[in-house]
Write a structure and sequence with these properties.
The complex is a heterodimer of chains A (239) and B (293). With 239 residues, chain A is mostly helical. Chain A contains eleven helices and no strands. The longest helix of chain A is centred in the middle third of the chain and has 23 residues. Chain B folds into three domains: 59 residues, Orthogonal Bundle (Arc Repressor Mutant, subunit A), CATH 1.10.10.1320; 59 residues, no CATH class; 120 residues, Immunoglobulin-like (Sandwich), CATH 2.60.40. Classes of the chains: A mainly alpha (239), B alpha+beta (293). Chains A and B meet through helix 4, helix 5, helix 6, helix 7 and helix 8 of A and helix 2, helix 4, helix 5 and helix 6 of B.
């Protein structure tokens, strides 16, 4: 079991598909205050105006505006929404499904949902990016569970997690700092917490399947997922 | 900012069963597992049903924890990959009119309803417009591309890059002019294609229409998992069921294999199957390659 140490290579230590952006990050810089600025929250006054370019808050501000336009049938807004987010949606689908064509189908379904349900997006219950990735993850997980056995998913997850991340790394200062915060905050999770969360997210496994794979007790895995996500949330300053 | 180690605290009262967790008052503590989609469909339904009749305070606390967990996941898992070119065009061309949307008032906003359901129903259900549109688009795409039933087989063929096409050097395979392998390799019309194998390595196909056969050679492909074998299949052009062409265990991996009867096949697929092989392929394939011209 490896531990994430931030003074070591973050790409290698925090790898296994969780943190593509971390790969190109240089030496740590002070990021102590960054956590609090990471997420767009309904309570933050005008968050997009204050956020550095490239942060989630910055992107979420734009996505929220686009969703309003999409809800009124604006196809240009939809195309811009797609251009801003399709790499994330397809990238996640590929991690979960591996299969390129199933991932493409999933991506198509997700964006059709965006088109049809933009009017139902409610900023009070989450950021646009979280809304989108929630739809995407659920779609991908449903598809992977209906198309292959847990054994296959585990085998494929094992294979995919050994791949080197080749995701492009944004050169936007804001997103780099944000990625650094994620690396640092993941380092506050135990190895077993990280592993359990990652297996569930990118492996598409249920807590029970995670427990089987890790040969751990079922209640223990539920606790790891709960505690790991809460710890990550706290460190990232998600409010 | 290392939070105190709390992974070793008591499992927080969790039990082995979601139903027992719910009955023992742990519903709010299931918010993270729920947000992570780490429950199965029946468990998700059980949680939502339980919440529907739970005290408002529990429901609110659960929804808030779900919301925070989703924000956390969206921030932390940021894999990116460029989708196939043309996907946006395909989506745009299939966009249904929005006029048929129920008004927002007709359905509760996500998180504001009595249950913390997803923003929208996500399961394919035949009545949903999104599914109809998608189904139609997919069907059009399949018809355009290849016979029915082929779709899952050619998994990733587009992306799995045919690395090399062209004449084949005979080289190492020359041993016996009369053996089937060499007949394929030395055929005047042999052409070669290499496809990626999921999990690592590549498979090189040497295809000879005149010999109605192909030679498959795995390169750098890891041994199948314990208790598993690779199984090769030909997928008939007429859309009928895939036909097994034999198994490859760890030992056989290093040797070229001859597959005959490719004339009536549209593609060759390789799957991972339990020892002894399967009567029908377990999808998805780890590799697939088109055989047709």
């Amino acid at each position: 079991m490896r531990t994430v140490h931030l003074d070591k290579s973050p790409a290698r230590e925090a790898g296994a598909g969780l943190l593509p952006h971390a790969a190109a990050l240089g030496p740590r810089s002070p990021v102590g205050a960054l956590c609090l600025g990471v997420m767009d929250t309904p309570n933050a006054p005008n968050p997009e105006a204050a956020a550095p370019a490239g942060t989630s808050a910055d992107i979420n501000g734009r996505l929220g505006s686009l969703l309003e336009l999409i809800a009124r049938g604006d196809q240009a807004a939809f195309a811009e929404f797609y251009s801003l987010t399709s790499r994330r949606v397809f990238g996640m689908a590929r991690r979960v499904l591996i299969d390129a064509e199933l991932s493409e189908d999933t991506t198509q379904e997700v964006f059709l949902q965006v088109w049809q349900n933009a009017a139902k997006f409610n900023p009070a219950v989450g950021s646009p990016l979280a809304w989108l990735m929630t739809i995407s993850h659920r779609r991908a997980v449903d598809k992977v569970r209906s198309s292959q056995s847990a054994t296959d998913r585990e085998a494929k997850y094992g294979a995919s997690s050994q791949e080197i991340d080749h995701d492009s790394v944004s050169d936007e200062v804001g997103s780099r700092l944000e990625a650094e915060a994620v690396v640092r905050c993941l380092g506050t999770l135990t190895d077993t917490q990280q592993e359990s969360v990652r297996l569930a997210y990118y492996g598409g496994l249920t807590y029970r399947e995670v427990a089987e794979r890790l040969n751990a007790a079922v209640p223990t895995i539920k606790s790891r997922i709960r505690d790991g996500l809460i710890r990550l949330k706290t460190c990232l300053g998600v409010s | 900012m290392n939070a105190p180690e709390n992974d070793n605290r008591l499992p927080g009262g969790f039990t082995a069963e979601i139903a027992t967790d719910l009955a023992s008052g742990r519903v709010v503590d299931l918010a993270e597992v729920y947000a992570l989609n780490a429950v199965d469909d029946a468990e998700r339904a059980a949680i939502e049903q339980f919440l529907a009749s739970a005290p408002a305070a529990d429901r609110d606390a659960f929804n808030e924890r779900v919301r925070q967990a989703r924000e956390t996941l969206a921030t932390s898992f940021t894999a990116e990959e460029e989708p196939p070119p043309g996907l946006l065009d395909r989506i745009m061309s299939s966009l249904p009119a929005q006029a048929t949307q129920p008004s927002p008032a007709a359905e509760p906003l996500p998180g504001t309803g009595p249950t913390p359901v997803m923003p929208h129903p996500l399961h394919d259900s035949s009545g949903m417009p999104v599914t109809d549109e998608l189904g139609a688009a997919r069907k059009r795409r399949e018809e355009r591309r290849r016979p029915q039933g082929m779709r899952n087989w050619l998994v990733g063929v587009a992306a799995a890059a045919v690395i090399a096409l062209g004449g084949v050097g005979v080289g190492a395979y020359v041993a016996n002019q009369n053996d089937p392998l060499n007949q394929v390799m030395q055929a005047s019309d042999v052409r070669q294609a290499t496809v990626d194998v999921n999990g690592g390595g590549t498979a090189t196909l040497s295809i000879s229409p005149s010999r109605d056969a192909a030679v498959i050679k795995m390169n750098g492909v890891p041994a199948p998992p314990a208790g598993k074998v690779y199984q090769m299949w030909l997928i008939p052009k007429d859309g009928s069921a895939p036909v097994s062409q034999g198994l490859m265990d760890a030992e056989a991996l290093s040797k070229p294999a001859v597959v005959k009867g490719i004339g009536s096949a549209a593609a060759l697929g390789i799957t991972v199957e339990p020892e002894g092989g399967s009567a029908t392929p377990t999808l998805p394939t780890v590799a697939a390659a088109p055989l047709g011209a």
